[in-house]
Amino acid sequence: MKTNVLISVTSLIAMLGLGVQPSLADSGQMYSHAYSSEQGCCEEMMGHHAHPADHLRHLLQHHKEIGLTEEQVKKLKAIELDFDRARIKSDAEIHVAERELQALVEDEKTELSAIEAKVKQSEMLEVGLRMLAFKARHDALGVLTPEQREKGKAGHEKRMHEMMSGRHGGTPSGGH
Predict the structure, then answer these.
(1) pLDDT tens for residues 50-61?
(2) What are the extents of the domains in the chain?
(3) Kind and range of the H or E element at 152?
(4) Do residues 131 and 42 make contact, with C-beta atoms less than 8 angstroms apart?
């Protein structure tokens, strides 16, 4: 019976792992894709969460309309670079942890407690990555004046509305 439970749990973890692996393989791509395209705002409108640091890219793209000074643009670019460095490192740590988890699951002798610990480690790395993005957005907003925040928000909402209505070459599904 103990063997049946172990096989069932291992199979479940393996199936979940296979379902998670493609998304993790794309997680860095998703972040950089949402970060470098207009897809992110459409996903947000469709119930998916756009990458929080996407707001930073929007601010830099529309710095003239928002009225950012050269000093503000310089600070935002520094925040963007710091975020990119941290995101790349975090993505690598997540991929390594997931690969280690896969190896643990494939080894029949692995204790469930070791698998559980590795799953928790991987999830905490994911949490850390999300928090990096929220921190970058928070830091970027701290650089702006209240008026600039309003202009940025209004421009972002306008762009989302245009994309949802099919203008700007976007589709409600974000092209997927």
Answers:
(1) 566 778 888 999
(2) 26-166
(3) helix 146-164
(4) no
